[in-house]
């Protein structure tokens, strides 16, 4: 029978494993199942790790309390993973490896376990039964003489109160009426805070309302009776849920002098515990930490601060680890403090005056208010007395452990010695776990940097490089980031990219950063703190809140809608913000800004990794800039080699299609031109320079410009080509041979067109008549750029209405698919199907035929020039 349940869902991030452990630990301790808490936490840790780290999915954890024990279910969204089976030929693997141990541990520790599959989920469950023990032996004390027993009235009255989730009293028994004088009808429905006199909440720094939210609480406070007097009581609170899932708190209260009825047995210090009955000595580390010890650093540190707090009956405890250079301590675990906001905060080792400020020796502070700043971590927490001890390994400082209380004067040198003894027992284990974590971080950092380098090297696009920088940073290194770029030394930093792990906050952060001055472009390497965004966001949120309350003047309805985004932005950028310079080729080209949400800090290892990434990103960003500049120059020069436009010729349809081979090339070795000569005549040319790319394009420019100049001098076609041949040969080693078809076109009065053509080594032009016949329109002659004394002649061709003249480069005729080639005959066959088409339709059909002839992209430049004398035509 299930008597209680608790459920939670955890995101697929590494920190969820520790959160899941805390959830299960708190749940089982609240149910009073301390005997099986450790096994349950170990199994849950492994299964949640499998889900959120190895499978990369959300993990759903469900705790079910039964009469015999507890059943815990962990579900993930990766149902394809295999289940290891015992007693088969397949080895289950080593339990010491990093992943895959969860099911093996279930088989070893759980009473029962199993795996359930659905199409979308895999559910692993395990049952832990409570150990069998005789009734009454859970806790026991010695027999005492009657005069030493606790004093009580003739009848011990236990007031039983039940408080709903809102803090209102829902149940008030007869003993409560007798003790406090209030009838049940007078108090039911009233908040407990109206009756409770709450001067102090041990261990929480909160009031009664917050204490009622805890799973279990025990301590002293007062209840105001009907006569107005405060009766001191000792109380035990237990938070439960009814069958409908509604939480409430059951409170048991007795007179304070009768606290023995409810008070839990006092904790026995680790050093005073009895030896095992078999006579073997206990391991001091296991005595303090418990068994089994957590196998991860975060779990070990959290268990340490919890046990240290319990050992000294403190209200809070904290543990700091030294950085590699031992100049700073970094907060790694705490309990009982207002929040985990101080995690990864860094404090100097030698903080505060005198020996009490040093972390290198034990220190006892009777009252922190008399030594301000002695323990920076506890500033503003309400803690008054504290004892701190160092963690040392072979004389080297590795950390600091502290326990604090709200009351002054709680600790003495005796407590310091006890805590130091515990610290000495765990220091080596903590250092070993820290070094192991550091090694894993370094391996992960190397893998991260290798992947980042590959991604950054894979693009030369500036915008894509900026996006990659941000996406690699968030959320791996930071919660949000911004990239500033600097165009040149005289330019101000420009906000180029903003990213947050929550896309809804990006616009708010971008708006905030655009209103403040960018960070100074300092070339000094390393991360430096930039407090401006957090301060400005905080001030904006404060002003918005005051205006919404009417405290700053003006109407409130106008800004009410903007309060939510303003507060969200302030929370998003309220943590630590650091700036890393982007330096490439000895010049600051930008800044990478990394940020954390409210009151969070960066780990030193993360900042070092971010600095390494910023160096790679800066070089990639500068390479993208240089590539963009060179591409722009190249494209501008290439466009200057193309004809400015195709002129309109009355009585002749003209269509040109040009394709340069190679990515990013606009001009290659093939070229074309059509230009007016004068007296109604037009020159046209189509040619092919040997080779492709920039060198061929240079000869292309020479040929096209020379053709125009020479033709407009009134020279004949052969004379134009002979002088162009001489100009090419004059280039010396840079010269390249050139095939060229050049002609002059003149319209006739009868509507036909007369063409005078010279074909110097170029594929012959084809003439398509209206009856569908295709013939060559010229004879082959020597190409240009090979011999000096070149003799050429021109031929005259007449295009009647409806006739088409097609001129192409060899990239069209030499189109290949394996051993097949389109060739002159194939081109002629395609042209025969173009009877009656316009010049544009003819050119388009030829190009489609060329593209479809082979599956691979063309490897050679291609140019198609189609001219048609208008007649009766049909659409393509």
From TrEMBL:
Q: Where is the composition biased (Polar residues)?
A: 271-283
Region Disordered: what ranges?
Answer: 262-294
The entry's keywords: Hydrolase
Molecular-function annotations in GO = phosphatase activity
Pfam families in UniProt: GAF_2 (PF13185), GAF_3 (PF13492), HATPase_c_2 (PF13581), PAS (PF00989), SpoIIE (PF07228)
Q: Output the GO biological process annotations, alphabetical, semicolon-separated.
A: regulation of DNA-templated transcription
Question: Which InterPro entries does UniProt cross-reference here?
Answer: Bact_Sigma-Reg (IPR052016), GAF (IPR003018), GAF-like_dom_sf (IPR029016), HATPase_C_sf (IPR036890), HATPase_dom (IPR003594), PAS (IPR000014), PAS-like_dom_sf (IPR035965), PAS_fold (IPR013767)
Q: Which SUPFAM superfamilies match?
A: GAF domain-like, PP2C-like, PYP-like sensor domain (PAS domain)
Q: Which Gene3D superfamilies match?
A: 3.30.450.40, Histidine kinase-like ATPase, C-terminal domain, PAS domain, PPM-type phosphatase domain
> Where does the PAS domain start and stop, copy by copy?
160-190
| Highest taxon above the source species | Bacteria
- Spell out the PANTHER family in the cross-references: STAGE II SPORULATION PROTEIN E, STAGE II SPORULATION PROTEIN E-RELATED
Name of protein: PAS domain-containing protein
**Organism encoding this protein:** Streptomyces filipinensis
